[in-house]
Each structure stands twice: as structure tokens, then as C-alpha cells.
Amino acid sequence: MRTSKEGAAECGGDAGARHAVWPGVIERYREYLPVTETTPIVTLLEGNTPLVPAPRLAEATDPSLSIYLKCEGFNPTGSFKDRGMTMAISKAVEAGSRAVICASTGNTSASAAAFAARAGLRAFVMVPRGSVALGKLSQAAIHGARVLMVEGSFDQALDIVRRIAESYPVTLVNSVNPFRLEGQKTGAFEVVDQLGRAPDYHLIPVGNAGNITAYWRGYREYHRDAKIGSLPRMVGFHAAGAAPIYENRVIDEPRTVATAIKIGNPASWGPALEALRDSRGFLDVVTDEEILRAYRMLAREEGIFMEPASAATVAGLVKVVKEGRIEPGSTLVLTLTGHGLKDPDTALESASRPASVPASLDAVLAQLGL
Ligand code: F0G
Questions:
Q1: 8 A C-beta contact, residue 310 and residue 338
Q2: CA 7 / ligand 1 centre spacing (Å)
Q3: Are 41 and 35 in contact (CB under 8 A)?
Q4: Which of 29, 35, 78, 313 sits a CA distance of 20 to 30 A from 46?
Q5: pLDDT at residue 369, rounded to an integer
Q6: Residues lining ligand 1, judged by CB closer than 6 Å?
Q7: Mutate to test the pocket of ligand 1, among 139, 268, 337 (most ligand atoms within 8 A of CB)
Q8: Ligand 1, atom 11: nearest CA belongs to which residue?
Q9: Which of 100, 107, 310 maximizes ligand 1 atoms within 8 Å of its Cβ, making it the mutation to test the pocket?
Q10: Residue 255 and residue 339: Cα distance in Å, rounded?
């Protein structure tokens, strides 16, 4: 790598070949976002995540399918939340806010804490006690957020922060903040820009139901501007113990190993239903057992380590292909929402534990069984 006179980074190789520096999702998709020349852009250069082909998954389900994984765990704080957070925090700074608040199952709090730190804002985050993966909690803490563990559910925590934001000078950065979904829709833009077309199906986990709503909005906007000729069917997956939209009722005590989507009363319930209906898609549920099986398979056979909520999408794929609900020959994109390192406890519980050995060649060889 060398640096040109103008200060732009260049990579070696062909003379004159230059890799443009990724500017973050707001600069990249500025014309689709509610920002002006004077909006101060707070970015960690989020987005531009890889769209990875998944041939083993196709082999294991239906080899006629083209399957791609949108690996959102490779964002700066390890989840898709950074797309919405760059927007929410930039707009909060533009509005003169000094502090932000959110409820979270973990990833939103990690992202809010990081972007607030970047912007010099205070961050207050509420997480349901005992239901947040260790990595997420450590992120919020190290970025300097004030973290409160609420003795209740995510839904109760969200209710509390909404009320606080109504009466105190703090900006709510949950996905009920409209700028969050605006940023998150860039995930759909990227899928199209990487794939060169819209997929036939877009599969995604559903918790608070913001992301499925945002992706559908992104696809519709690209379709409106004739950047794609067709729209995907949106296919959502709840964890079976936390399936309010599927069961059409609020779940007071949601349960699932996929703590990120352990939500009983999604904020974007209505818009998610519209996305499902308008895209002629559908919503299904997957059990914790199916989620953990898919989680291991993804890590062992595709080399991709994503958190359990993300694996819900892969579990869903396996289920709906088996049920014959996916047209053979289709192109599918699966959003893998958060990195596996977020939740080391579940990883260690789901795999064989490392064994201790004395520091001798013979002892090591005996263990390896070579
Ligand atoms: N996957 C992961 C890893 C998540 O963190 C979330 C939501 C979802 C899927 C579901 O997305 O809510 O837009 O339907 N996490 C939120 C949080 C609730 O607080 O981090 P959704």
C-alpha cells in the first residue's frame, strides 16, 4: 500500500489501478437518505459487508438454488445495527442532542454505545437482565455507555425508554426512531449492487421486525428507480418461543436461545406484516434445536461464525426448502445479522470443549489420535 500525493490510498498491482475507499453507508447512498450538506456524518465506515456464496448450504438443501449470505456480522460493531445507527446518531447530532437512549437485546446497545462515543454523546442503554450475550454487554460497557440491566423483558425495557425519551432531553435510538430504518435499508441496496439483480427470496430473522421492514423499503426504492426489474419475496423467521407475529398475539414471556430475537411485542409489527403481504412472502418459526443445528452447520461447513439469531435464518431455509416452499432454481439471499463472537457462551456450549493436556509431545499425540 502506498499513498498518493493527494493522500488517497492506492493498492499495488496494475499501474493506475486504484481501490476506492469505502465511505460508509450514508456517503455511499446519500441520495436515498434524509441528510443534507450540513448534516454532520458520524460514521465508522459501516456497510460494504460481503455477500458470500454458500454452495454447501445449497448442496444440503436443494442444489438447484443459488444461495448467498449477507454477512452483517462483519460491520464495525459486529451487527447490522451499525447501518441504522450511523443515521440515527448523525441526525441526533444535527438536532443538537447531547445524549441517546435505547432498550436492547444487545446489538443495538453495542452499536449505539460505539457511535455515541464516536460523536461525543452520552449513551444510556437498558438490557433485559440475564438475556444478553456477553460480547454485546462488554461492547456497551467499554464504549462508556451507562448500562442498566432491567429485571424484566426487552419489551418492558423498550416501554420504559420510550417514556423517558418523551419527557427528557435524550434521543431514542431504537428502530422506532425513523432514521434507523432509513439507514438499515442500505442493506438491500448493497445486496442488489453486489448481486447485480434482486434475489427471488430474501430470508431474514425477525425480532423487533425493523430489519425486514427496512430491507423491503430498500428493495422497493431501487425498484421504483428501475435499478431492479423484480422484487424479492420477503421471508421472515421467528424463534418458536418468541413468535408474536406468527401467532398473532403478544408473547409475555418469550423464550429462545437466540436472545437477540427474544421479543414478544415487536415495534414494527404492522410494517413487517405489510412487507410480507406486499412481497407475497411469508413468516415461519424455527425451534431452538433447529437454530443450534444450523449454527453449527454454518460454522463447520461454510466457515462462517454468526450468532444464533442469524442462524435462525439458515434453520428456516432448511425447513422451508424441505417443505417445498421455495421454487427450484431460485436465487436466495440470507441476512446473517450478527457475528458469532458476540455470544461465546453459546458457541462453547454447542461445540466440544477444549481439552487440557500436559505439555508433552506424547500426550498431545495421544489426544489428537493421528
Ligand atoms: N438478529 C440480530 C443479531 C439482532 O440483534 C436482532 C435485533 C435481530 C436479528 C432482529 O432484527 O429486531 O430488526 O427484527 N436486535 C435488537 C437489539 C432488538 O436490541 O439489538 P429486528
A1: yes
A2: 38
A3: yes
A4: 313
A5: 87
A6: 79, 81, 104-108, 175, 205-211, 260-261, 307, 309-310, 337-338
A7: 337
A8: 207
A9: 107
A10: 21
Place of cell 409475555: 252
pLDDT tens digits for 87-98? 999 999 999 999
- Report helix, strand or coil for 364: helix
Q: How far is CA 330 from CA 63, 75, 179, 287, 311, in A?
A: 10, 27, 32, 25, 20
Amino acid 285 reads: V
How many percent of the chain have pLDDT more than 90? 93
Q: Label residue 19 by pLDDT band (50, 70, 90).
A: low
pLDDT in tens, 292-313: 999 999 999 999 999 999 999 9
In contact, 180 and 210? CB cutoff 8 Å: yes
Q: What is the pTM of this model?
A: 0.94
